Amino acid sequence: MDWLDNIIKTFFDFDAMWQVFPQLLGVGLVNTLVISIWATVIGIVLGMVIAIMGISKTRWLRIPARVYTDIFRGLPAILTILLIGQGFARFSQQLFGPSPYPLGILALSLIASAYMGEIFRAGIQSVERGQLEACRALGMSYGSAMRLVVVPQGVRRVLPALVNQFIAIVKDSSLVYFLGLLVSERELFRVGQDAAVLTGNLSPLVMAGLFYLVITVPLTHLVNYFDNRFRTGRRKATPPKSGLDEVEEQNQNSTTAMTYGSNT
């Protein structure tokens, strides 16, 4: 059973896991969530703008949105992160100092906005056209109808896809380490990797993977639950009728029929 001992020492060294646990919790998890949340918020705002431009009837709005989406969806995430992080490093140093943290968030935001723009566009276009026509018939402007009726319905329909995109951002945040983050800015993957190099086994990386699962798996099941609630609605269970209730209902039906027959 030497092979089993080697696997346990390589991947499940609990001493190594416990040593890196405080850093993963206090540094890695916090930075991963900060990067992911900021990238998601900026991506949602830019994605909504891209979606509105993409469904516009004006070509000079629709074509740039299409080009933007094709570029940032077509490039690998790591290439985008390196191009943004290294290409705008000097400009970022003048604003934010030596930390590449903001550039990593910006790169992830641009990637996320391209995907979210397509998600929003599909959701908005899935809303029945009669909704918009009914709003216009009631005297609402096009902008008000889209903002108050069409867009909220479209966003609700694509909620699972948005959460899945957030999960993808959480995982892609591990690529920001290529920009050379400071010690206090290390995310989960970088903390686990550094600890794995020091300890000589992969147990810290396995522990980092468990942290990622703690974030992503509950979100996946939670969004599936709410998606089912949104699609099916709340169904209140009707209590079974007792024998007395059935008899009373039959008597009422008989009385109604007799009354209707006498009147006719």
Description of the molecule:
The chain starts with a helix and ends with a helix. The protein contains twelve helices and no strands. Helix content is 81%, strand content 0%. The chain is mainly α. Helix 2 (14-54) runs antiparallel to helix 10 (188-199) and helix 10 packs antiparallel against helix 11.
What is the topology?
Blueprint: H1 2-11, H2 14-54, H3 59-74, H4 77-87, H5 89-96, H6 101-126, H7 129-137, H8 142-157, H9 159-172, H10 188-199, H11 203-232, H12 243-263
Helix pairs in contact: 2-3, 2-6, 2-9, 2-10, 2-11, 3-6, 4-6, 6-8, 6-9, 7-8, 9-11, 10-11
Determine the structural class based on helices, strands and strand pairing: mainly alpha
Helix count equals 12
CATH superfamily: MetI-like
CATH class: Mainly Alpha
- The string of secondary-structure elements, in order, is HHHHHHHHHHHH
Low-confidence stretches: 240-244, 255-264
CATH architecture: Orthogonal Bundle
The proportion of strand residues reads under 5%
- Report the CATH topology name: MetI-like fold
Mean pLDDT: 82
Q: Report on the biggest sheet.
A: none
Organism: Agromyces terreus
Subcellular location: Cell membrane
Region (Disordered): 235-264
Keywords: Amino-acid transport, Cell membrane, Membrane, Transmembrane, Transmembrane helix, Transport
